[in-house]
Amino acid sequence: MSHIFISYSREDLGFASKIVKVLADNQLDTWVDWKSIPKGENWEQEIFRGIEEADAFLFLISQRSITRRCANKEITHAVQNGKRISPICSA
Predict the structure, then answer these.
(1) DSSP secondary structure of 26-72
(2) pTM for the full model?
(3) Which of 15, 31, 40, 76 allows an S-S link to 50, with CB 3.0 to 4.6 Å?
């Protein structure tokens, strides 16, 4: 089970990568799409599964991420599954 699901905008990949590294350096496991979705799988189904299996949901807030339709679906799914949601503002 992953400890933290990370939701972000592709335009914020650099910031998301830094967050993943800092969490890993502190022995916290993360679920992030670029390392957690097997090739050829239904990406949306895998994202929802990742949210369901995570202990917490980390939303990287940026001007780009708040307008993503996928991000809204991810947040809704996290709320429906009773996940702790932690927002972090990215530049």
Answers:
(1) TT--EE-HHHHS-TTS-HHHHHHHHHHH-SEEEEEE-TTGGG-HHHH
(2) 0.88
(3) 31
